Amino acid sequence: MLDELIGEARSRWGIDLSGGLQVVVAEALVGTPIEASRPVLIVPAAMLGVSAPIAVKVLPGRHRADRQDPTGVLGRLYPPDHPVGTLGPDPATTMIGDLTDDDLRRPLYVAPIAPELAVSGPWGMPYISDRLRQPDGCPWDREQTHESLRKHLLEEAYEVYDALEGGATPALAEELGDLLLQVVLHAQLAAEAGIFDLADVQASIGRKIVRRHPHVFGDSVAATAADVTRQWERIKATEREEEVGGGADDATRKGALDGISRSMPALAASQEMQERAAAIGYDWPDIGGVLAKVAEELGELAVAPDATNRREEFGDLLFVVTNVGRKLGIETEAALRSANDKFRSRFQRVERMVGERGVAMRDLDFATLDTLWDAAKAEERSR
Questions:
Q1: Residues in Cβ contact with 296 at an 8 Å cutoff, skipping those fewer than 6 apart
Q2: Which residues have a Cβ under 8 Å from the Cβ of 6 and sit 6 or more positions away?
Q3: Do the Cβ atoms of 297 and 317 come closer than 8 Å?
Q4: Which range of residues forms the domain containing residue 372?
Q5: Which residues have C-beta within 8 Å of that of residue 354, sequence separation ≥ 6?
Q6: The domain that contains 24 carries what CATH number?
Q7: pLDDT tens-digit readout, 133-191
Q8: Residue pLDDT, tens place only, 306-331
């Protein structure tokens, strides 16, 4: 039966098999990866000799968990005016946007779309990136290097960070796409140099995550998040030993803190270092010890004899305060950003109140400004 359908599609619709053919069981469509830039045959299960009910799970990463509608899935992968040919008796042509569930009860042929239109698939952006880098592509893209793209990577990462405050929103999807583009661009440059490509990037992280989750993909046991963290750090330590041949005296042996970027915001880097140290046992038994250390560092800052020592003691104080946040389960970088936002909002209210008085802030004493600050706080709470 399948051979007959392929033969009909070749004669009637001019299907080109040189790039491969995807055959999808209609009842399992929502759980099947489909690359829209390749031809697709959608065939009812019964025509393929499959009679038992098919248990279908929505494909992770391609279809939203709330979208188990097969025609809706196709509508996300193809333009609404893309033609779909029916096979068998009384052949006809319809459009993706006009498909109904009844149409899926007979075999369908969906022609491929241009690679630059197959943007819902994992290889749409790699194709677009490669096309832009061609001699007749985009002058700006052809000039880019790993070095020139560094600032864009940071910018996009921070924009994602900001968008995360709103949770799962269309804006977050857009910002994640901008960040993904940076990954694709760097992989494209590396591929042109013959070093690695996007498949290597995906394989690297995929292998790493599976390897570091033996409690999911193996027979290890980790009942709590703390168990997972300790296991994660043990596995990483083993990986570091393997990278240098396991020699305990090897000068090149990597430590638990290696790999933490010096370009990270200092507060986030501080918390990451302390989390890694704690994961392998270097940690205060309770928060009381950390709070006592805060008091100690405050005392040392108060008696620091000169600017150099004050700078050092102040850094120590910030480091320990970060540890307090870690012990309380607080992301210190996010907490400080929130405090910054709160200060900005209240200060702007004070500026507005001062403006309403027709005076300049520099002409008011601190006591007056502090009273206005309290008023701004009260106004904030009332809202």
A1: none
A2: 15, 17, 21, 41
A3: yes
A4: 333-382
A5: 360, 361, 364, 369, 372
A6: 3.30.950
A7: 999 999 999 999 999 999 899 899 989 988 998 999 999 999 999 999 999 999 999 99
A8: 999 999 999 999 999 999 999 999 98
